[in-house]
Amino acid sequence: MATYAIGDIQGCLREFDSLLETISFSAHDELWLAGDLINRGPQSLQLLRRVKSFSGQCQIVLGNHDLHFLAILFGGHKASSKDTFEELLQAPDVYEIGHWLRKQKLVHRDIGHIVVHAGIPGVWSSTQAFAYAAEVEAVIGQDEGVALSADELSYKEFFAEMYGNKPPYWEPSLIGMDRLRTITNYFTRMRYVDAACTMNFVEKGGLESTPNGFMPWFEFAPSQNLQVRAEKILFGHWASLNGVTHTPNHIALDTGCVWGRSLTAYCLETGKITRQSAY
Known about the structure:
Elements: E1 3-6, H1 13-22, E2 30-33, H2 44-53, E3 58-60, H3 64-75, H4 86-89, H5 94-101, E4 107-110, E5 113-116, H6 126-140, H7 155-161, H8 176-188, E6 192-193, E7 199-200, E8 215-216, E9 232-235, E10 250-252, E11 262-267, E12 273-277
């Protein structure tokens, strides 16, 4: 048995299938998918149907593009001109797929590794990160028809109010949608942070493009009251890194398949990296 983590697929089904063939993926193996399964690529609907068929041997964490689709489906938002959701949104099983997708995680941990879409801020321990993720997962993964108290948000309300860059940094005292949005943004949108772990939502370049006063999130030194994270972190989201972090415990999986580069698989047991060039 082997466990493979794969970066942002973004609807690139042909490359995904070829990569699974190259690594000889079998019924005994497990997949970890680092979010952004869909959008910008050509086959978002078919990709989600394929991944859904792997449910028994697949761990999925949600990315910002996956949440964007859910915000369109359940939150009343409209697709942008850059989105490639049209076939998915018109599919007869779109709500079945959407309800399945919103039940997925923001972060997953096993065998000394954590997979997350964008990253985990250095102001949180791993234990805190999973506790905060559970707060968001409890809202977006609610069962249909469950009665909520007056101060509880429904998943539809969450997706209606999800977008935004504020607050851009963590405060334990945050409540309501501000708290949930900040947690979600750290897990799914973070790239550069400053010394207060404030997120920069503008710059999307690589390490050479680091803005003054900021650093890549994985270079942020945790505060003295936090233990150094023991797990390796596997993450996607940041295609401009092209797999390079210069840190052994942070594995960047987004190598820009949808932009014509490659799709990456990382074997947790061996550390071997396999790449499938974009067609």
